[in-house]
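Database export, one record per block. Field names are fixed; values are copied verbatim from the stored entry.
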Amino acid sequence: MRISPLTLLLVILLIATLGFTSVRRTQGVSNKQTPQREQIKKDHFPTAEYEEPDLADARKNRLRKEKQKRHNNFKIVSSSPAEWQAERVFIGEGAFNFPALPVERSAYILIGKVADAQAHVSENKKNVYSEFTVSVERVLKTAKSSIMEGSEITVDRIGGHVKYPDGRSVLYRIAQTNMPAIDGRYVFFITSINNEDYTLVTAYGIEAQGVVPLDDSPQFEEMRGLSEEAFLRNLQEFLAKSSAN
């Protein structure tokens, strides 16, 4: 069946209005047209069970459910995605409306290593968020004295794979955002909107070849390839200017 140009235009406008894009599943080799680097990024998104079982530990189960309720305010997950749908991307305007080093926006800036990663759907099952357990190596800025070298902190970010009871899995994410990798070492920029959960603003991976931006917004590229020492010098200068204001 052929689709008229006018109908096609209306469909495109509808998708733009909703702020979502979808990616079809491919047969045989998955994501054949996706560069390997992009696929690796997607593989770093943890997986949540749509029907997540309760935890045996009553206290931990209660705390998890309370946190799931706090994530009810964002709607990206479908209860019954189309069979062809492999991915759903939310396009949020102004998601990265901040400089390459978001010192002012971040209540916490630290260097740490990702020890674990999990994902959960929200209490209303309309959102998915990922949690990263970060072992703190060095604190550059903090709003709480309890966050110190040697401590652990759980950092959240919207997005993740959702596995449905029928076995299908769909990736839900915000455009240009990526997830840190387990065992990866990063400089994390973190905020806390509700004083209970720590939310990832952005991060930079510290690798042998230099600093690598976690996210894909253009302003981060100016930092790519800097040595750890050079990057931290720049960051310390920004922190000094921020504290002086």
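Remark 1: The first strand starts at residue 20 and ends at 24.
Remark 2: The chain has four helices and eleven strands.
End of record.
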